[in-house]
Amino acid sequence: MIVDSKKIENEVNPPKELYIYHASSSFANDVAMPYLGSFAVRLGASFQQLAWISSMMSLLPNALQHFWGWISDSKSVRTYWIIGGSVLASISLLLISQARNPNEILSLIILYSIALSIITPTWAALQGDWMNPSKRGQTLSRFHVIGGLTGLSGSIIAIYLAQISPSDTAESFRPLFIFAAFATFLGGLILIRVPYRDPSKIKDVKLSDSDKKEYSQTFKQFVRAQSFYALNMSLLWPLFSVILIKVLDSNNTIVISFAVIGAIAEMAFQPLMGRLVDRVGPLPVLIMSRIGFAILPFIYAFFPDIRIMLILQIIILGPCFSAFLITSNAMVLDLAPNKERASYFSYYNARLGIVTCVGILIGG
């Protein structure tokens, strides 16, 4: 029988440095990474090269996590691994800003992926170390709202640079990756101030051997279901950049505006989804978001109208993406032992990354 982890109260509040780190990493991501595909297109990337870039960004940062998740659970302090990964990521982003052709981007993605594979499971586990089980939804939503605000500021910067650029070329995207590099580096350094919290001393659910087995089986079933869904969705997502730029002939400002509208909608729905997760649990909310995501690619493909796509960014992508951000982590945290959180996240992310890569390549 699965035990309700919400009954394990542990009054703790995340230190402000964790929120600052999340804000800086969100800024770095939103100011540059949504436009990596568009940057590659402006550099002359073919549809096949674009599919390779998308698939590598899905595969490598996740597939490499299996090793780093175990390491961060058992060796040294979690924050040290995140700081090291942030330094490596900042170097990668700086080099990407200087890329001259799509093949250079493909090469640099490998270095950036190694950095992400260190950071991603360790950061998710560190967040879990500083959360009350009964308030995971609200705490995660708070992180994402703060990250959304800084990410929005990054998107506004991207729009401004696109507007002052003399033409729709790759040059307007280069400063975005420089900003991302500096934000990533500074965000990693701030974690030096985070106090150490030993996962083995955090109050956890007491489980019998049969309960542990059931938890493990439930987690594996969850991973299999998510992987099947990710495979099907990834078959269609590479079409988005091509439809937006080549079919609709959108300029850089419109491309960036799509990301801004999606970010505002996602941020607006975060508090509601956080409270909903704490009230009904993460699984029903996750199912709702997956249904919404399943609708989007088909509408994009069969109704390539700029107005329709903008409306969908608000009424479907906003609530669904905010729900997805909260529920995925909440589900893993509910099922993972405190001392193995990074390993569980790396197991989950690695498998989803592999199937997503396969789907993108097939779709390409």
Structural account:
The protein has helices at 16-32, 36-42, 47-63, 65-74, 78-96, 102-129, 136-164, 174-190, 209-234, 239-247, 252-280, 282-302, 306-335, 341-363. It is globular, with a radius of gyration of 20 Å. It is mainly α and 364 residues long. α4 packs antiparallel against α14 and α7 runs antiparallel to α13 (306-335). The longest helix has 30 residues, at 306-335. It is built from 14 helices and no strands.
- Note poorly predicted spans: 1-8
Helix content: over 70%
What percentage of the residues does DSSP assign to strands (E)? under 5%
3D shape? globular
For the terminal residues, how far apart are their CA atoms?
Answer: 43 Å
Structural class: mainly alpha
Order of helices and strands: HHHHHHHHHHHHHH
Described by strand count, sense and barrel closure, the largest sheet is: none
Secondary structure tally, helices? 14
Overall average pLDDT: 83
Extended strand count: 0
Give a quick summary of the entry:
It is built from 14 helices and no strands.
Which tags fit this structure?
364 residues; mainly alpha; disordered N terminus
What topology does this entry show?
Blueprint: H1 16-32, H2 36-42, H3 47-63, H4 65-74, H5 78-96, H6 102-129, H7 136-164, H8 174-190, H9 209-234, H10 239-247, H11 252-280, H12 282-302, H13 306-335, H14 341-363
Helix pairs in contact: 1-7, 1-8, 3-6, 3-14, 4-6, 4-14, 5-6, 5-8, 6-14, 7-11, 7-13, 9-14, 11-12, 11-13, 12-13
